[in-house]
Amino acid sequence: MINKYKEPLKDKIIDYIYSAIINEEYAQGSQVKELYLSEKLHVSRAPVREALLELVSLGVLEQIARKGVFVKEITSKDIYDTYESKGVIEGFLATEFALQATKKDIKQLSLHVKEMSDSNIDRKKVVKIGEEFHKLTLKYAKNSVFLETLEKINKKSQLLFYKNWTRLYSQKEVQERHQKIVETIISRDKKNIEDIIREHYFETGTKIILLREVK
Prior knowledge:
The protein has 215 residues and is mainly alpha-helical. It is built from ten helices and two strands. It has two domains: 9-71, Winged helix-like DNA-binding domain superfamily/Winged helix DNA-binding domain (Arc Repressor Mutant, subunit A, Orthogonal Bundle); 76-213, Four Helix Bundle (Hemerythrin (Met), subunit A), CATH 1.20.120.
């Protein structure tokens, strides 16, 4: 049963649906039924409806008239557009970090990279560290419109990434890719930081597309 006192029910339901998609309990094209979720999670239908509407707005689910809500079929173009947009927006926002980062900020980024290389940690933990790494690069970002847009894109890109992450990169490759970003940030070069982050995500999106094509 969902504990409604810890965080909004809608967000918990969204997390549940995300996990179900990642674990392939919901395949692409599967119907996501409001009543079923309400009964399974022991909540009213109102927050379930809110969660479904938000996921539709994010492009994770789609509403089909007179039929219901379904897991959206993700095309190669969806993946390319998602990661291209993520790279362009995050690259732009991270330039503020590149210009304003303190020694403490750089040290924290480097610590995240070091943690990624620890052979004793679970690969899922490596992914979480990567999320913290990228979150830190947005510390000084001020453009609220871009930040809100990026948050929505992140929801979709994380879903795509988590469904493929075990085949995308080795732990060593994850560490090396993030080390490149640290080195570029240290250079304080705005164009280079935009380029490296755009390339960082473009490469991931391209690899996800290639993985889908060889299935």
